[in-house]
Amino acid sequence: MRGSNGYDAQSRVKVMKLLWDALGSEFGGRHELYERNYAGNHEAIRMEVLASAQASGLVEDYKSLAEQCLNEYGLRGWTVPDLITPADVNLFLRKFM
Questions:
Q1: What percent of the chain lies above the pLDDT cut of 70?
Q2: pTM as predicted
């Protein structure tokens, strides 16, 4: 995976993994993605969200939240103790199931 705009491949992978861990689900993957994309043209939806954020003045807050998430996330998952990774779930299941 190649990065762009000064970001390397590891940064791009980290963002993609963070997005999936924050928004995705192993349980309803295909249906979940369908529901997200059902609203219409994906480029237009993203432009509407951007315009709404700009109009509300929250763009910098959203960027700050994204930076905080990226600072607390590594290539193997969350790096802070109050968030869990898939490995934590597997360990829990082996221990208690």
A1: 82
A2: 0.61
